[in-house]
From TrEMBL:
Keywords: Membrane, Peroxisome, Repeat, Transmembrane, Transmembrane helix, Transport
Places the protein is found: Peroxisome membrane
Each Solcar repeat, start to end: 2-89, 96-195, 220-303
Domain of life: Eukaryota
InterPro entries the record matches: MCP_dom_sf, MCP_transmembrane, Mito/Peroxisomal_Carrier
UniProt source species: Mycena pura
Protein's name in the database: Mitochondrial carrier domain-containing protein
Principal subcellular localisation of the protein: membrane
Transmembrane segments: 6-29, 59-82, 102-122, 167-189
A GO term for molecular function: ADP transmembrane transporter activity
Family of this protein: Belongs to the mitochondrial carrier (TC 2.A.29) family.
A Pfam family per the record: Mito_carr
Gene3D superfamilies linked to this entry: Mitochondrial carrier domain (1.50.40.10)
Length: 314
């Protein structure tokens, strides 16, 4: 089995674990980002959770989880595969420079975005489906099961019936712009990792250990992954809002003439706050997910390599 395939499988498995742990925050962010009411007061994460549980029960926080797990497993597997394949061609035993990290990230991110967009359209549609239902139906707060939910297959059929197959690539414009998010994330991670390893290796050699080479602990990887995702998400969040609205098929969003046009429309109609709806839950979720993903992918990859080596030994 090639190294790129092992990285891909490890990335997919780590992504499933990370998303399962943080999915309620993804759900809350998606709803907040798609909400377009002018002057709507942004709820705290606590009040948002309480409101969803009151209306839909605890499992309401996991609406769209199945398609999200499918999406993250597929997305991470494809991303890590293309990332590792590209890095193997560029790196050749040396540390990656910043331009090389950016190039590799662009290749992996673009391929992943084009292939995975239909899955995220389904996930976003599932996560916001009950918003319309709530607007049209008088819900009994003591009967959360009155909320209508669609399965992945039902959601796919609904999207096809209403908008056709092209609807599965709604939001592909801002999604491709958002390729810069993982590019920033992995570039920042690689450069922070390189700087930390170089510093620690220099200290070890200064202490008289001539052949010493520093390694990162799980704690180091967790922290660096969190910092890298914090930078990436903070820088690209307004485009995440535009993409979410387009993927949800929001009527107003479908009138955006372009990604930039969407940003300007939101700014004009909702102010700067509209560009950052749901940013709190998104930042917390993204940072935790990325940190868990970096550590999980590393550990699963190492265990898979050991298992493969043992198989060939015996």
């Amino acid at each position: 089995m090639s190294d790129s395939v092992v990285h891909a499988v490890a990335g997919g498995a780590a992504g499933i674990v990370a998303i399962t742990c943080t999915y309620p925050l993804i759900f809350l962010f998606t709803r907040a980002a798609v909400e377009t009411k002018n002057g709507a007061k942004t709820q705290s994460i606590y009040h948002s959770v309480a409101d969803v549980i009151k209306r839909e029960g605890p499992w309401g926080l996991y609406s769209g989880l199945s398609s999200s797990l499918l999406g993250i497993a597929f997305t991470n597997s494809v991303y890590y595969y293309f990332y590792e394949r590209s890095r193997a061609l560029v790196q050749k035993g040396k540390l990656l420079s910043t331009p090389e990290s950016i190039l590799i990230g662009l290749i992996a991110g673009s391929a992943t975005t084009i292939l995975s967009n239909p899955i995220w359209v389904v996930q976003t549609s599932q996560a916001v489906a009950t918003m319309k239902w709530e607007a049209e139906t008088s819900l009994d707060p003591f009967n959360p099961r009155s909320v209508k939910k669609l399965s992945i297959v039902q959601t796919v059929k609904s999207i096809l019936a209403k908008d056709g197959i092209r609807a599965f690539w709604r939001g592909i414009g801002p999604a491709l712009v958002l390729v810069i998010n993982p590019v920033l994330q992995y570039t920042v991670f690689e450069q922070l990792k390189n700087a930390l390893l170089a510093r620690r290796t220099a200290k070890l050699r200064a202490a008289g250990i001539a052949a010493a080479v520093a390694v990162l602990s799980d704690g180091d990887v967790f922290l660096l992954g969190a910092l890298a995702k914090l930078v990436a998400t903070s820088a690209t969040y307004p485009y995440i809002v535009v993409k979410s609205r387009l993927q949800a098929g929001h009527a107003r969003a479908l009138g955006y003439k372009s990604s930039l046009g969407g940003l300007l429309t939101i700014l004009d109609e909702e102010g700067v706050g509209g560009l950052y709806k749901g940013v709190g839950s998104k930042l917390v979720q993204s940072v935790l997910t990325a940190a868990m993903l970096f550590v999980g992918q590393r550990r699963i990859y190492e265990m898979a390599k050991i298992a493969i080596s043992a198989k060939y030994v015996f």
